[in-house]
Every structure is written in structure tokens, then in C-alpha cells.
Amino acid sequence: MTMVSGRCYLEKLLIENASGTLAGLKCASIFNVKSGYRAEIDESIEKLNGVLNQRGVTIRRLFDRAEYTLLLVYSEKALKEALNQAEAVHILLNFGYQNTDCVYCLERLGDRFRETCCPHELGIFLGFPAEDVREYIRNNGGCCRLCGFWKVYTNEQKALEMFRKYRICIRVYRQALKAGLPLSRLTVAA
Q1: Which residues make beta-bridge pairs with 8?
Q2: How far is CA 159 from CA 25, 57, 120, 129, in A?
Q3: Residues 27, 126: contact at Cβ < 8 Å?
């Protein structure tokens, strides 16, 4: 993948879009990479997974569109916990998931992206509160109390605290990347 200041483009995207997952604050993060980089993406994913997998974090190609490739960065341990919460199980079953096996659910999520632009259950995979995901679905994305890293319907104070932590994490990780810290030191063991 294209090098920028000694770092690959995908590594910089990881810091910008998945620092919360790397830091252990969230179970998963999602972002896209322009299709012009598609030829190099598998090599970069394999290289970065060599570092991240040792810490329990994985980058997975979730879905390809003509303009971009959608990547999911996740902690398998944390994602399993998120998928197996009672409210999350209920939501996933309503969207045709047959079980909460992590590998199966990731495959099904990829299929759901082929069926619809942005599957509403995605919030479960990203570690958003299941109650907020449920209310987002119920309200068709409208009538939220607060909008930040996700649309908040239930616990505003808890969400504001998480938003604050995410912003601090992104700032700290940007500084660490600029200072030259390796990705292995920026990834908290899951």
C-alpha cells in the first residue's frame, strides 16, 4: 500500500478510524478504502494482521463496492461479548441471523451490505448500546436525543462520556503515530 511518511496508508486510516478498537474502548470499527488501493489492500491487511492478531485484533475485508472496500477492525473477544448480549441477540435474529457465532455473523453482515446500503444492525457490531440500536431501528434513524459517534436514544450521559473518551483516544493515537510509535505498541491486548 502507498507509503506516507514511512507509514502505509492503511495504517494511517487505522489510527484515524479504529483507534478506539486498537485501544480496547470498542469491540469494532469500520471504514472504507478507496478502490484505487484495492490491488494493494490484501497485502497490507496481511502485513498489519501479522502485528494486530498477536494482540487479539483483526482487520477483515467486509465488502467491496465499485468505489471502495469496506474494512472492519475488531477484537474477536469483545465482539463475541457484544453479539451475545440479550438485546443484541434479539436484534440479530430479527435481521435473519441464525446464531451469534462470530465468524458466521461477520459473513452474514457482509451479505447484509450486499442487500442494503447500511444494515441497521451494524451498531451491534460496533459496540453501540443495543438499546440505542433498537431505538434507531424503531425510529428509522430519527428522533434521537443526541448525535455523536452514534445516534443516542437512551443514556445520554454515558454516551457523552464515551464520546469524550473516543475523541481523547483519537488525539493521543494521532500524536503517537506522529512520534513514530509502532502499531504493535498502540494496540492493547484484547
Answers
A1: 3
A2: 13, 24, 19, 9
A3: yes
3-state secondary structure (DSSP) of residue 180 = coil
pTM reported for the whole predicted model:
0.93
User: Which residues have CB under 8 Å from 177's CB, separation 6+?
Assistant: 7, 11, 12, 15, 186
Q: Give the number of other CB atoms < 10 A from CB of residue 65.
A: 12
Q: Summarize pLDDT for 68-121 with one digit per residue, the tens.
A: 999 999 999 999 999 999 999 999 999 999 999 999 999 999 999 999 989 999
Residues 123 and 117 sit within 8 Å (Cβ to Cβ): no
Q: Which helix (H) or strand (E) holds 68?
A: strand 68-75
In the chain, what are the domain boundaries?
Answer: 3-183
Q: What value, to the nearest 5°, has the Cα angle with vertex 98 and ends 92 and 100?
A: 65
Question: CA–CA separation, 151 vs 75, rounded Å?
Answer: 23
Helical spans, DSSP H, in the chain? 9-22, 38-52, 76-83, 86-94, 102-115, 122-125, 130-138, 156-178, 183-186
What is the C-alpha separation between 109 and 176, in angstroms, rounded?
Answer: 32
